[in-house]
C-alpha cells in the first residue's frame, strides 16, 4: 500500500499488485492512480460504446478485486448491457451510474441536499461517488428555498453532517440559505436546470460563486462527480471533534 | 385633470393648468407628463450641476404647487446646495434623494425589503419614490437569507403588503425565498453590491430572472427608481379584497 | 380557506381538504401550494411523456375539483393524448396549453399585446395563464411598432386595462412605446423571436430592461407563464379607483 | 481633381496641388486622401494636446484653403485654445467639434433625429460631419418614442429627407419606429446613454441591429463621425426622383 | 400610387388598388406596405411549409400583378414545390430565393462583393433582393483579401458602382480593404462563415463594426435581405453626379 | 457555548455572554454569529473609513475578549491608524489584514501555495484567515509551474497538509498540477493577476473550474477570505487517519 | 518554381506548369497558391459530399503529381469512399485526414504533445499537416499535467525538437508547463475537450493566451490545421544552431 | 553554460557563473533563467516604483555583464530616473522600454509591421524585445489596409524577413492581408487601439484568431513582449534555405 502523506486517508486500504496500466485498445487505464491518490477507478461513460464501458469496468474490477469500481454518465443503452453482462453490478438509472464491487466502509457523512426532481440526476451521481470514494452519502431531497418549512425541518440532520453538498439549479439560492444555517464545510453544486435564458447553468454557477455566506466552495455546473470526490476526501479525514 | 382610462388611479388628483413645457436652457421639462400618466415629476441628478438640479426642482415645484417633486441620484455637492437653497426640502443622504412638497395621501402599502447596509441606498431611493408616487413605503432592513430567523420574523408584515420589492445584491437569493413565503406581487430589485467577480450586478440580476418561484418581476440593476414607480402604480390600484 | 395575509386576493376561493401531496412516481405534486399562495396548480409539460402529463392533470383535477388546472409547454404528442383522454379539456395548440376545469370568475383585465404571428405562442400561453390564475385576458395582436397606426388605434383599449403585458421579440421596441402611451402597470415579456445574431432573445431582453419609459417590469425570455402569473396577481388586487 | 469613378460625387470639387503628406512630428497628415475619396480632412481630437489639435487644423487648412477642415472629440481645453488661436473657427461645445473654413454647398438633406439632451452630443457631432462632408444636416431633437405625438408631428419633415440618422440610447426603439414610418435610407446611430446595466451601449446597439423594420443600417456605438460620413456620401449622390 | 415624400424613389411605380390585407389563415399579408414605403412584398420562407410559401407567393402576385414578389430562405422542399407549382418563377438554389413577376427597371448599380463559395448564399440572396427592390445587382465573387491581386483587378468596377455591399465571414477584412480603395457608400454584410471559435459570426460582425475606414455601415450577420433592401434604397436615389 | 451539531468543530470554544448585536451607527455588528457557526468575527475594511475599522475592531474585541478578531482589505490609511490606536494588533501590510487578540490553538495544517510576488497579497490574506479561523497556515511561495523543479521540491510538504489552497493568476495551471501530485482536499483560489486580456481573472477562474484533475474546489477570484474560511473549517475537522 | 523571397523555404521544390485554377463546378481550386506560398493544397472536408472530396483530391493530385495533397475533417462516409476510390491514399480515421502522394523530405522536427485520447483527433490532424507541409511530426501522447512524471520523462525529446505544439483541452495547463521546461518555439493548440461549463474551448483558449511563460503563440480552438501549417513553416526554416 | 537541447539556439552564448537568485527585497530575480532557456532577463516596469526598476536593472546588469537587460512598460517617471541614474541606457519613450548593455549579434530578421501612430508603442516594444532577444528587428510603419498601395510597396521587404509580426488594432485586417501576400511565419499582435465599442481589443483579437489565411499565430492583446520573444526564438533558429 502506498504510504505517502497524500494517502494518509485513502478511501480503500490495502496493497495493489497488478500492472500499472491496462491497454484496452480504445482506452489506456491508469491502474496505479489508486495507489498514488487513494481514490478508486472511474469510467466516464459519455461518448463510449456500451461494450467499451462494460469492458473497462471488467478490466478495472479484475485489477482491483477488493474495491468498488464505478462508471458515470452511463447511457440507457450501456445501462441495459451492464444489466445483462455484469450480474452483480448496482445500477442507478436516475443517477446514470453503474457500480461493481463493494464500497469501502464509510468514514464521515456527506449530506447531499437538493430541491427536487430536476436536480436529482446530478445529486444521485454525487451521492454514489461519495459512497464509492469512501464516505456515507445522505441524500436529502425536496428542500428547495421556495418551500422553506421543508428545509428548516431538515436543519439538524444537515448540520450534523461532516460535509454538505448543496445541489441547485435556476437561481441557486439553496447554498446561501444553507450556509447561513450551518457551519459545516459546504460545497455548492450548481446544475443546468432552468427555463428560459439561464445560460446553461451560468446563473446558478455565478450565484454560488457570489454567495453572501462566507466559505462556500463550488464546482463546475452539473459536476456531481467532482463534488462527490471532493466531499468524500474531506469526510474521510473527519475525526472526533477537537 | 386628465381623465383618460390610463389615469384612473393617478398618484395625485387635480387639474394642472400651467404650460406644457419649461425650458431651463440646460433642460426642457415636460410639465405635461403628469397629466398624461398621473405620475409626478422627477429630476435625475447624476451628471447635472448642483445649480441645475436646484433650478429644475424649483421650476417643477412652481408648475406643480400641489404635489411633491423629486430629485434622485443627488450628489453630496447638490445635497449641500439643496439644504441651503430649498428650505422645505426633505433630504435623504443615504438614498440620495431630495423631495420638495407634500407627498400625496398614500394608497396601498409597498414592503421594501433588503439585507442590510450595502443595499440601503438603493432600497431607500425606492422607498422615497414609492412615497412620492402615491403609495406607502414600508422599509424592512436586515433580513438577508444568511440570517433566516430575522426574515421569518417579518413574514406576516411582508405578506400583508400590497406589493413587495425585494432588494438584493451578491447572489440575490432573497426574492426567491420571499416569493416562496408570500403570494403578493413581487418585484426583484437586484443591486451591484458584491465582492470579487460578480459582473457589476449581473449575478444578482440573472438570479432574480431565474427565480424558482413563479411570478417574480424584475427591473434593471440598482434601478430603485424604476422599481418604486412600478410598485406605486400597482399599489395605487389596490382595492378591497375580491 | 387559507386566510393569511398573502392570500387576501386568491384566484380561487374556498377550502381544500385533500392530502398535502400526491406522489405519482414520476412526480410529487404539492397539493397544498394553492392554499398557501391562492394560485392554481400547473404542470410544466416540457420533458414529460404524454402519459405523465395526462396523469398529472388528472391527479390535480381530482384534488381540486372546483378549479382549473393547467399544463403548459405541451408537445404535439401530449396534445393528441389529451384530446383522446381528457374529453372536457380546452386545448390551445398555438399557445401549447391544456386546461381542465372552469377558470375562476375573473377580477381585473390584463391586456396581452403583441406584434404578430411569431410572438403568438408566448402571448397565448400568457393569456391562458392569466385566465386560469383569475383575471380576464385581453389578447391584442398585430400592433407592432413598424405599423404604428395599428398600435395607436388600440390605445384606449390598452390604457383601460388593469395590467399590460407587452410581448415583443427582435429589438423589442413595443414595451417602451406602450409605456409612453399609458400609465398602467406594464410587464415586458421579451421573446426569442428574431433573425441573425440576436443571442436567443438577449437583445429583446436587454431592450426591455433598459426602457426609456420608467416603471417597466420584465420577466425572462419567452416566460409567458411567469408574466401571466404576475399579471393576474396584480389584476386580482385591482379595486375601484382611489 | 481626382476623376476616378469613386469620386464622381466628391464633397468638395476642385484640384489639390500640395504635397501628399505633412509630417507634424506628432502626426503624419495624409493630404492626399481627399483626392482619393473626395472627403475632407478630419482631426480626431481625443488623446491629443490642445496644441497638437490646433497645429493639425492649421496645417490641414493651409493645404486645403478651399474647403472646411474639422476636428472632432475636442476637449474643453482644446476648445478654449481654438477660440484664442483660430479666430474664424466655428466651435460646437456640445458636439465637441471645431470647423475651419467654409463647408461646401450642400447636396441632399440628412435628418438627424434624436430623443433629447443625453443624445445631443453625438447627434450634433453627426450633424456637423454631415455639413463638412457636403450635405445639409437637419437636426430634429426631442422626438423620443416615450412621447410618440412629438415624433408623429415631425413625420413629414423626416420622410422628406434624403437620409435619416436615428440617434438613440437606452433601448433604442427610435430607429425601428422611424423605419416603420418612412422609406428613406436609414442609419441607426446607437449611443451609450443609459442607466444601470446597459453594457456601455450594447443594448442600444443590439436593438438597432435587430430592428423589425427591414433595411436599417448601423454604425458603432456613439460613432457620430462614421454615421455622418456615410450619410453625407449617400445624400451627395441623391438626384431627382427616378 | 402613394406620393408621400418617403416614396419619392419607389422601386415600382404605379397604383395599387387591391385590399389592404390578405388573410391566408397561416399568415396575414400586409398588401398596403408597398404603397406606404415603395418596397415590394417578401415572404420569409424559413419556418413555413412549402404549401404556405407557394400560397403566399400566389396571393401576393395576384395583389401585385405589375411587380415582382419574392420569397427568401426557401428550403429545398419548398424550392421543389415552387418548380412544380409556379411555372414562371425564377429559382436560385444557392441564394435560396424564389422570384415571381418582373423586376422593375433598375435605377443605380449595387456591387455585391465576396470572397468565394462559402459567402455565396448570402451574397446571392442580397443580389436578388437588390434586383427585386429596384436596383441593378453586380455580383463580384472570388476577391478575398488573401488573394489581393484579384481584388485590385476589380477596383474600377467596384468604384464605379453606386453602392457597395462587402460580404465577408471569418475575420471580415474585406470591407476595410474596400473602404480604403473606394469612396462609394459601403455596406458591410458579415457572414457566419468560419472555422473554430468564431462565435457564429460575431468576429466578422465586430470587425466590420470597427473598420479603420470611416463611413462603413453594417447589418446583422447573414442578413443578405436587409443589406439588399438598404442598398437598393440608396441606389434608387442616385442621380447624375452633383 | 453553542453546542448544536454545526459547531461540533468550532474554531474557538467557550461561551459568549454579551449582547446579540452592537450598533456602531455606521454598522450593526452581529455578535451572535460566532455562537451560531463557531467562526470568529471579521470586519471587511474596503469602503470603510480608518476610524470605522478601528471602532469596529474595538467593539468586536470587547465582545469577544477570548478570541481573535480580524479586519481584511485594510487600506494603507487604516493600517496607519491601527498602528497608532491598536497597540497589540498584528499588521500585515502585504496581506492587508489587521488581527487583534490571540488566534486559537490550531487544528490541522493548511498549505497555502502560490507562484510569487503578484499572488502574495491574496495568499497572505488567506493564510491569516486560516490562522484566525483555527487552523495552522503553511505559506509556500515561489512554486509556479514555469519553474517546475521548485514545485516538485515542495511536494512532500504539500502532500502532508490537511488542506491545500492553490493560489494562481494568469492561466492558473498550478491547481491542476498540484491536484495531480497529491490527494489532499484542494481549494483553487484564482487571482486577478495577469497582463493583457485576461478578463479580470476570469481566465484563471475558468481554468480552475475546468481542472483535468478530479475534486478541485474553487472560490471567487481574489477571494482569499472565503478560501481561508473554508480551508480552516475542513482542517479543524481533521482527526487521526482512519 | 516561384523564387520570390517568401518561398525561400518551400515545402516542396520544383516548378508547376498547370493552369492557375481548376473549376470543379462545386469548387474552384487555386492551383497557383503552392507557387505563391510554397505550401501544398488542402481540401477542407467538412460540409462537402464524399464525391466532392474525392473529386477535389483527384484534381489536385493531377495538378501536383510531385507532391502530397491532403483532405482534412473527413467524415466517415468520405473516408469509406476514399478507401474504395483512391487506392494509394493514406487514411487516418482518428485524425480525420486523407493524404494522397508522397510527403516531401522533412526539414526540422515538430513535437506534437498532448495528454491523451480526447485530444488525439486534433493532435493527429496537426501531425499529418506538419508532415504534408514538409516537416517531421513527432507525436507524444499521454503526457498530461495530472501525471507529471510522464511529462518529465519526455522532457529531453521535447526540448530537442525545432518547434513544439502543445495540444490541450479543459484548463490547458500543458503549454505553460512545457514553456517553463524548454526554450523551443511553442504553439499552444487549445481543444474543445472538457466537461461541464467550459464554453466550447474558450477556457483552454484563454489559458493558453494568458500563459505565465513568455513567448507562447496560439491558434484557434481545435485548429490542428493552422497549428500544423505554422509549425511546419517554422521548422522548415530551421538551420544548424547559430 | 547550459547545453541542453532547448538552448541549442540561445540568444546570448557564454557561461554565467553568478548566484542563481538575487533578492532585492521587493523582488526576487531568477538569475538562472537565462541559462535554462537562453533568454535574457527582463523587468516588467508596470506597478513598480522608479527606484525599484532602476535597482532591478542594475542587479541584472551586474549578474549578466555580457548581455543586454531590459525593462518594459516603463512609466515616464521611471524613464526620467533611468536617464539620470543609468548613463549608458537606451531609452525608448514611445515603446516604453529601457535597455542596458549590448544586444547580441542578431540572427535572422523580424519584420514588425503596423499601420501607424496608434499601434506604435506596442510595435516598438516588440521591436526592442526582438533585438534584445537576439534577432534583427525591421520596423515598418504606416502600412495599414486602408492605404493598400503603401502596404504593397513594402511587400518584398516583408516577404524577405524570417518572421513577420503584424501589429493591428481596430478590425485588425492587416495580418490576413499580409498572410495572403507572403509565406513567412507570421505572428499577429492585436492591439487595443480603437474607437467606440471594440471591447478593449477583443475585436482585433478575434479577427486575428479567425484569419482566412492559414497558419497565422497570435498572442494576447497589446502583448508586444510575448510577440517579440516568440519572433526572436523563431528567427534565431533560421538557417540557410533547405
Automatic annotation (TrEMBL), chains A, B, C, D, E, F, G, H:
GO biological process: 'de novo' IMP biosynthetic process
Cross-referenced Pfam families: AIRC
SMART domains, A to Z: AIRC
InterPro entries linked to this entry: P2CMN_synthase_LarB (IPR039476), PurE_dom (IPR000031)
Domain of life of the organism encoding this protein: Bacteria
TM regions (residue ranges): none
GO molecular function: hydrolase activity
Coiled coil ranges: none
Segments for region (Disordered): 1-22
UniProt-recorded name of the protein: 1-(5-phosphoribosyl)-5-amino-4-imidazole-carboxyl ate carboxylase
Organism the protein comes from: Rugosimonospora africana
